[in-house]
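[Meeting: bench + compute handoff]

Bench side (C.D.) handed over the final construct sequence. Compute side (W.E.) agreed to return the predicted structure before the next meeting so the bench team could plan truncations. Sequence as handed over:
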Amino acid sequence: MLDFAIQNTAQRVRALEPNIALDELILDVAFVINCHIALRLVSAFDAYVSVELHPAFAHSAETTFRYAQRYYAVCPERFIVKIPLTPEGYCGVAKAREDGIPINFTLGFSARQNYLAALLSRPNYVNIFLGRLNAVVADNRLGDGKNVGERVTLASQNALIALRTADTTVPTHQIAASMRNAEQMVSLAGVDVYTVPPKAVAEFYQQEHAPGSITSRLGEDYAVQLNADADRAYIETLWTVDNNFKRFAKALAARDGTNLTGDDLREADRDFGTHLFTAFTAEEQTEIRTKGKIPDVARWKSATSLDNLMTESALQSFVVDQSALDSRIRDLITRG
């Protein structure tokens, strides 16, 4: 069924644009297939659906904006465009929100990333992939990994509440993403939105919680146990939005995100010493991609912040998944 849709889409695009380059054709087909799947979900569940941009657009604000417009035009009532958190992503999201396009700003791993997003770009949703944060600390033997993601999620949520209270035009809500179990559903009660796998939901219902036992945990300050040789300050950056970072974010927001470029954000990052936008070479991206979703912290600690490293690892993991689909599309349309 999907193979037929791929071939049929390619034929239709070629009929309209006979001279389209193969790589451009693959991107267009991938876009149509994403829309096809998302529309089926809308129909089946009467739901809002996040539609994800191709990772090839992650470092182009203009292309990010253009494809956000295309997705929104397909189903403005139910599509929420999912855009990766990169310097160009911040700028592309600002433009999309100016056009009223709903945005899920994804691949967030720190309170400060989301603070900047809410102030500069004003997306509808931001994320903390909390399960991966617990895993990166445990897998790198920096600590037991418990409560890292939970603490970061609550810090990000509370930062957003403060921004929304100070400025009622800030629309940004927090998603607790990448949950692993029912315990996290309870420990993060009060967060705006959950994304939870069915296994954790089933586990939650099996525990038969009394309604009164589920109360807001936004005031909790969960302890994070780190090993004696772990660089605590390096990890604490994940849940800290210090005054210097707030000045950095406010300075950028004052310049209007719709008129900024990714390089403008990188320059401000250097000027304020916030170390949020370290650029990786193509060779470094390949190395990170090979390692997977959980990076080798010791390898990159001196080069970049942990939140930036986690975002790049997540983006490169997405590249792997998308490349598999792109290869399938290429094979089908060249064979046909």
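W.E. noted at the follow-up: The mean pLDDT is 96. C.D. will use this when planning the next construct.
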